[in-house]
Amino acid sequence: MTRRKKTRKAGPLAPSKAPKERQASDAASKGKKKGKGQPSGQRHSSTKVLQQSRTKGDEKDPRHGSRRKVALVMTPEQELKQLQEDTKLQLLVERFENDESLTAEEQRYLDEKSERYEQLVAKLGYELDEEWDDEEY
């Protein structure tokens, strides 16, 4: 017996199939295919369209930290303590007392910090001893 190759055809004895009907929505979806990527001609788009696209991205991101205000200024006591512990200022004061010459920038720094020190001392009510020596301690 000779071999017969299988086919997908049902043959004359199989039941016939009804033809498929196309719906209106299928015809509409078969139109223009949705493309990928950015629309063409963005370089030549009007500025109005570009501004609208930017406003979407300008919305505030809720993940960016708290809006609670933080005081950036130290209390007078903290600022006075910081001035007293400033090593650069201490070195400049020693050089000034030893009659060494200071550059204009160093002199300006010394003047600003010493003026601020005097303001803080007056504000806190401390008394400055003009004849204070290191040997008394």
Instruction: From the alpha carbons, calculate the radius of gyration and give it in angstroms.
Output: 43 Å
Largest sheet: none
Assembly type of the chains comes to: single chain
Task: Quickly give the structural class.
Answer: mainly alpha
- Write down how many β-strands occur, each being a DSSP E stretch of 2 or more residues: 0
Overall mean pLDDT stands at 78
Count up the helices.
5
Task: Label the overall shape.
Answer: rod-shaped
Distance between the termini: 126 Å
Task: Please mark out the parts with pLDDT under 50 across 5 or more consecutive residues, or reply none.
Answer: none
H/E element sequence: HHHHH
Strand residue percentage: under 5%
- DSSP helix fraction: 40-55%
Verbal overview:
The structure is a single chain. The chain is built from five helices and no strands. The longest helix is centred in the last third of the chain and has 21 residues, at 104-124. It is mainly alpha-helical and 137 residues long. The relative contact order is 0.06.
Layout of secondary structure:
Layout: H1 24-29, H2 47-57, H3 76-84, H4 87-97, H5 104-124
Helix pairs in contact: 3-5
Relevant terms:
137 residues, mainly alpha, 5 helices, rod-shaped
Provide a quick synopsis of the model.
Keywords: GTPase activation, Ribosome biogenesis. This protein is mainly alpha-helical.
